[in-house]
Amino acid sequence: MTILEALQWANNKLKKVGIESPMLDAELLLASVLDVPKSWLFGHIADNLKPHQEEKFFMLIDRRLKHEPVAYLINKKGFYGRDFFVDPSVLIPRPATETMIEHALDAFAKCDREKTLFVDIGTGSGAIAITLAAETQTPVLAIDSDQSALVTARRNAQSISVEEHIDFQHGSLLEPLITLFETIRASGNPNISSVFPFKDLIVCANLPYLTTAQMNTLDPDVRFEPVRALVAGVDGLDAYWDLFRQFKKQREILPRHITVLIEIDPDQVNRSLQLIRHYFPESTVRIEKDLQKNDRIVLAEI
After folding, report:
1. What are the sequence ranges of the domains in the chain?
2. Taking burial as the number of CB atoms within 10 A of a residue's CB, which of 66, 211, 233, 263 is the most buried?
3. DSSP bridge pairs for 140
4. Residue 117 per-residue DSSP state
C-alpha cells in the first residue's frame, strides 16, 4: 500500500462515521506512524508503507473511528506555536485558550516584570504556564489538584526548556499560592512589603466550565477527555465560585495588584460577572473574545 492509497482508504473510513476532518486526521496519524512532518507526505505519496507501518496505521484509524481524539493518538497538540505532550490525564489545549495568553501578556506589559508572578490554576498539560514562561522568562506558579496532570506538565516544561521558571505544585485552586505568601510573610523583613518580592499577580484559570446538561450533548471526541477538567455543576461555574471565594478570604495576604483571567462559555458572561462582583464589587471587569469572535475570557482586576 502506498502513502496515497493509505490516506485515501483512511479518509473514506473516517468520513463514513462523521469525522469532521477525515483527510487531515489521516495525514496527522500517518505522519506520526512514519515519524515525519505532515508536509513530508506530499512529496512521497508513491512510497510504499512497510508492513509494520501499515499495521500501526490501521490500528490508529480503528481507534479514531471510535472518536478517540487525534491528539491522544499521537500524544501531541500544538498550542501557541509549540507542541505539547498530551494524554488522557489532561485536557487537550484549545486554540480559544490562546486568547488568554494574549491578554495575560498584555497585562504583563504594564507590570514591573521583575516583581510579577504568573499563576496558572488547573495547569493540566501545562500549556498556559509553559507558554507564559517561554514568552516572558518570568516566574510561574503552576497548580493542579491531579498528580498525573502535574507529571505531564513537568514533562512538557522539560521538553520546552522552561522548567527553571516554573514551580509546579499539587493543591486545590489557590492553596499553594496562599502557602507561598504565608511563607514570605513569616520570613520577611518587617521593614519591607509583606509580599516581597512580588508586586503584581497575573492569575490564569482555565477551570472546568461545562454544565452537567452540556456534558450529555458533547461531541463524541470530547468524551475521551477527563470529566473533572470539563464539568463544574449545574451552571458550570462551581469551580470559579470556589476560586473567587478563596480570593476574597485571602485577599489581604496577596499583592495589591491582581489580574485574574478566566475562560468561560459564551453563555456564562452575565453569570460570571455577577459571580466576580459578588465578592469584589469594586473590581474592574471586561470580556474578551476568542479567535472565533465568541465571548471567552473574563479579565478582572481585583
Report:
1. 3-66, 89-301
2. 263
3. 118, 166
4. E
Q: How far from the centroid of its chain's Cα atoms is residue 255's Cα? A: 25
In the CATH hierarchy, which top-level class contains the domain 89-301? alpha beta
What single-letter DSSP state applies at residue 49?
P
Q: Which long-range contacts (CB under 8 A, 24 or more apart) does 193-196 make?
A: 194/253, 195/253, 195/254, 195/255
Q: List the alpha helices (DSSP H) in the chain.
A: 3-16, 22-34, 51-65, 70-74, 98-109, 127-136, 147-159, 175-187, 212-215, 238-250, 269-279
Same fold, 3-66 and 89-301: no
How far is residue 157's CA from residue 129's CA, in Å, rounded to a whole number?
9
CB within 8 Å of 194: residues ≥ 6 apart: 184, 185, 188, 253
Determine the Cα–Cα distance for residues 22 and 1; give it in Å rounded to an integer.
19
Task: Find out whether 98 and 80 touch, Cβ atoms under 8 Å.
Answer: yes
- 10-residue mean pLDDT profile of the chain (302 residues): values are 98 96 98 97 96 98 98 97 96 96 97 94 98 97 96 98 97 96 77 67 95 85 89 91 97 94 96 97 96 96 95
**Domain 3-66 grouped into CATH 3.30.70:** no
